[in-house]
C-alpha cells in the first residue's frame, strides 16, 4: 500500500497530542460536509422548480409549431399540411390565428392577444390542470365561448360564476381609414366568457376563441398565424421535426417547445448555474478550514517528519502525506454531505416538510425536489477538486515553512 497514504490515514484517525487539532480536523470535515449537502440540495431544488415551470409551460405550449419564415401569416392550402393533418403520429392538430385586439367588458377595456384555434383540438386532460375556473371548451350548444388568461379576467373584472354580459372584441377593419363613422373602422364581435387559465406569464394576456370567431374579428379567412400539434407518445420529436422541416421547405420554420420560448429555458438554466457558482464560492471558505487543520498537524508531527527524513524521506514524501490527509478530509466530508443531501431530498419530496407559505402559491403545497445522479457527480468532483487544490498548496507551503524553521534552529 502507498506509504504516504498509510501515514495520512494514521494521522487522521489517531489522537493528536494537542486536542485542538482533533477539533480543527472535525470542523474541516463538517465544513466540507455542509458545503456538499448545501450544493446538492440547491441543485435538486432547482431541478424541481425547473420541472414545475417547464411542465406548466408545456401543458399549454404545443410540442411542435409551424410558423412562416417571413411575415406573420401564411396559407395552409398545400399538400404538406394536408398530409400532416392526417399523419397517424399527429394528435390535437390545429390551425391558429393570433393577433392583438381590444376587449371591452362593461366599462373596462384591455388590449389582449386573441388566439383562434380549432375547438376539437383541445385536450380535456390538459384542461383539468390549467383551468382555475369554468369549463375547458370553446363551444356549448352552438354558442362560442372564450377561455381567458388570468390578466384578461382580472383587468376586465369578469365574474365567471355570475357573468351574463358578453365581451366585446374590436379589431381594425382592413382597408378602411378615416371613415366618417368610427364604428365602421372596426370589426366588432361579442363572445361569452367561459373559463380562466391558471396564471402563467406567457399566456395570461390571451383570449382563446374558436378559429372561426377569430377569422370574423380579424377579417382573415384564408391565412393563419401558425399550425400547432402534438405527437403520440413514443414518437421521436427531434427526428419528426427534422423530417417535417425538409418536407415543408425554407419558407416555414418548425419549432419545438424550447425554440418557441428560448428565453424561458435559458433563464431557468442560467439562474441555476449562477446560484450554484455563488454557493460554490461560499463553500470555498468552508473548505479552507483544511488549511488550518493541515498547518496544525504539520507542527504537531515535527518529530515524525525528522525521523522520516533520517530514514531517507524527502520533502516530496512529506508533502504527499499531508496532501492525502487533506484529500481524505474532503472525501469523507463530501460523502457524508451527499448522503445527508440525498436523505433530505427524499424526505422533502415524500413528506413535503418545507411548505410554501400560505397564500404565496396555489400551484404547489411544498417545494419540489428532484435528484439527478449527474448532480451528485458534479458536486463530488467540484468539492473534491477544490479541496485537492487547497490541500496541495497548503501541504506544500506548510512543509516548506517547517523546513525553514528547522534550518533556522
How would you describe what is shown here?
The model has no long low-confidence stretch (mean pLDDT 82). With 409 residues, this protein is an alpha+beta fold. 31% of the residues are buried. The chain starts with a helix and ends with a helix. A hairpin with a 2-residue loop joins strand 3 and strand 4. The protein contains 13 helices and 13 strands. The chain is elongated, with a radius of gyration of 32 Å. The strands form 2 sheets. The chain has a 6-stranded mixed β-barrel with strand order 3-4-10-7-9-8. A two-stranded antiparallel ribbon has the order 2-11.
Keywords:
409 residues; alpha+beta; six-stranded mixed β-barrel; two-stranded antiparallel ribbon; 13 helices; elongated
Specify the biggest β-sheet. Answer: 6 strands, mixed, barrel
**Whole-Å distance between the termini?**
35 Å
Quickly count the helices.
Answer: 13
What structural category do the secondary elements indicate? alpha+beta
The strands making up the biggest β-sheet line up spatially as 3-4-10-7-9-8
Task: Give the total of beta strands.
Answer: 13
Which percent bin holds the helix content?
Answer: 40-55%
Percent of sequence in beta strands: 15-25%
Amino acid at each position: 500500500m502507498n506509504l504516504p497514504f498509510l501515514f495520512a490515514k494514521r494521522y487522521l484517525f489517531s489522537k493528536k497530542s494537542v486536542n485542538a487539532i482533533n477539533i480543527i480536523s472535525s470542523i474541516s470535515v463538517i465544513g466540507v460536509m455542509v458545503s456538499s449537502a448545501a450544493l446538492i440540495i440547491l441543485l435538486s431544488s432547482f431541478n424541481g422548480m425547473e420541472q414545475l415551470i417547464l411542465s406548466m409551460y408545456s401543458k399549454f405550449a404545443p410540442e411542435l409549431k409551424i410558423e412562416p419564415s417571413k411575415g406573420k401569416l401564411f396559407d395552409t392550402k398545400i399538400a404538406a399540411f394536408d398530409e400532416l393533418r392526417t399523419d397517424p403520429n399527429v394528435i390535437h392538430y390545429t390551425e391558429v390565428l393570433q393577433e392583438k385586439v381590444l376587449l371591452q367588458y362593461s366599462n373596462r377595456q384591455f388590449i389582449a392577444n386573441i388566439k383562434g384555434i380549432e375547438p376539437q383540438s383541445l385536450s380535456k386532460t390538459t384542461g383539468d390542470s390549467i383551468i382555475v375556473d369554468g369549463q375547458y371548451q370553446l363551444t356549448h350548444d352552438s354558442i362560442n365561448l372564450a377561455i381567458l388568461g388570468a390578466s384578461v379576467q382580472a383587468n376586465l373584472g369578469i365574474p365567471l360564476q355570475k357573468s351574463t354580459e358578453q365581451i366585446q372584441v374590436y379589431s381594425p377593419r382592413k382597408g378602411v381609414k378615416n371613415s366618417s363613422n368610427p364604428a365602421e373602422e372596426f370589426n366588432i364581435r361579442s363572445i361569452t366568457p367561459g373559463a380562466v387559465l391558471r396564471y402563467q406569464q406567457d399566456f395570461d394576456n390571451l383570449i382563446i376563441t374558436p378559429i372561426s370567431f377569430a377569422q370574423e374579428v380579424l377579417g382573415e379567412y384564408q391565412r393563419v398565424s401558425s399550425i400547432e400539434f402534438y405527437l403520440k407518445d413514443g414518437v421521436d420529436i427531434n427526428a419528426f421535426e427534422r423530417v417535417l422541416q425538409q418536407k415543408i421547405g425554407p419558407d416555414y420554420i418548425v419549432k419545438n417547445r424550447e425554440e418557441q420560448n428560448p428565453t424561458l429555458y435559458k433563464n431557468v438554466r442560467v439562474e441555476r448555474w449562477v446560484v450554484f457558482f455563488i454557493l460554490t464560492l461560499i463553500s470555498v471558505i468552508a473548505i479552507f478550514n483544511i488549511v488550518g487543520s493541515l498547518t496544525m498537524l504539520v507542527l504537531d508531527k515535527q518529530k515524525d517528519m525528522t525521523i522520516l527524513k533520517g530514514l531517507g524521506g524527502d520533502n516530496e514524501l512529506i508533502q504527499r502525506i499531508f496532501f492525502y490527509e487533506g484529500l481524505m478530509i474532503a472525501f469523507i466530508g463530501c460523502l457524508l454531505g451527499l448522503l445527508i443531501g440525498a436523505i433530505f431530498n427524499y424526505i422533502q419530496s415524500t413528506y413535503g416538510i418545507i411548505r410554501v407559505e400560505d397564500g404565496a402559491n396555489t400551484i404547489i403545497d411544498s417545494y419540489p425536489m428532484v435528484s439527478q445522479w449527474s448532480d451528485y457527480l458534479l458536486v463530488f468532483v467540484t468539492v473534491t477538486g477544490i479541496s485537492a487544490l487547497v490541500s496541495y498548496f497548503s501541504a506544500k507551503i506548510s512543509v516548506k515553512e517547517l523546513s525553514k524553521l528547522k534550518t533556522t534552529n
